[in-house]
Design goal:
71% of the residues lie in helices and 0% in strands. It has 262 residues and is mostly helical. It has one domain. Helix 9 packs antiparallel against helix 10. The radius of gyration is 17 Å and the shape is globular. The two termini are 27 Å apart. 47% of the residues are buried. This is triphosphoribosyl-dephospho-CoA synthase.
Length: 262
Amino acid sequence: MIVTREDEGLARAAVEGLVAVVELTPKPGLPHAREADPAGLRWSARSLEPGFAAMAATARRTGEPGRALRSELGAIGRSTERAMARADGGAAVGPGPHHGAVWPLGLLVAAAALAPRGATEEVTALAGRLAALPDARAPRMATPGSAASVRYGAAGAKGEARAGFPHVRRASTALRTARNAGAREPEARLHALLAVMTTLQDTGLLHTAGPHGLREVQDGAREVLAGRLAVDDLDLRLRERGLRPRGSGHLLAAALFLDGLR
């Protein structure tokens, strides 16, 4: 497989989106770089770069969002997840900080390679078309997220992708709105994260905390956006309950990836 500089650039932009979320402070319920091992968090993110580059190269070579491309992306994605697990110290320590990020970012990287000058709406629509295609080689085992999706009727990561990433578009709009209102970049990114948290049906949260935990995250984000709750107070509340809105963080990273291509 020939990986071009364009492919490497897309992969680097995707990783930078993840790193930007790592470095964002505050971010309610999510790991703070100052508290966790910042080098470890960045190393975990950068372990994904070769996989993302391979996805971009495969998409560019294939040239269209068909079943063959979907199957290849799935195989690369699973290999990339394994590489990330090794970078995080192995599966024995549980899901790493970027577990679940390969699915949304990988699809969007491939879509961006298919539409190099595409606007956010075109790239997310292409990614949605890819997500809707079957992957014949995908494992047929249930995951905690898929089980929560079935149990609670939530869209989950697959539903978000097949719908063309509405929450990535939501985050992109929130970023632009906050910037146009004069917000500094960290404030704009926090605004986008909270905008996603208000409505995302995060199956990771549903799995660990049920509908009540998900509502607590969504309602808290709305309160912060409305000015009725300080973001640090929401952060403390979520940490005390062990509520980790990782799905929202991954979708913010995806929005920052697309924003970095503009």
